[in-house]
Amino acid sequence: MSDLLRPLAVATAGMTVLAAAVWGAYGLTGLQEGGSSGEAVTLYDPRDARQVAGTADDVFAGTVVRRSGERDVYGVFSDLYAVRVGHVFKGQLRGTVAVSYEQGHEPLAKGSSYVFATGQVPDGQSHAVLLETTLTPITGLTAPARAPSLDSAPASVPAMSTVSAPAGRTVAQYWTWAVRHEIDVSPR
Fold this sequence. Notes:
By secondary structure, this protein is α+β, with helices and mostly antiparallel strands. The protein has helices at 5-29, 49-55, 171-180, and strands spanning 58-73, 76-90, 96-102, 113-120, 127-129.
């Protein structure tokens, strides 16, 4: 190989490796067609309540008081709600708290109750529903627990073991169990 072609070949090989690495990272983050900005940071399986509980700062049943606006939390556009905290499964929340929920989901209904798994927003004044979790109204803590849907996570989330509510468990029993058996998947 000539002295002129050798550096060109090495540079071409290097660019090929770099391009492959960038393309691989792009594919792993879920930012290709249909992805959202939050998908790149989700380390837990949103279908596994134990992983959701382990990732959340707070897990509680609450009732939506009102929609109070919109916000942008690090590029994730969210609706902001005032939520009255009912039963606390994890954390110390009390009273009415501000909760943001990623836009693109069905809006939360005023007067409806949900189990919220949230993380504290850096402003310290509000909480955000964990990305890629889908809130489903509950009729009460003694209602039968529903297993998470296999379709509740986007295609970019790998199919891990879906942990469903054992038969006969109520919403309260299921989330108490999930918090007691939480799995923290965050890197330390």
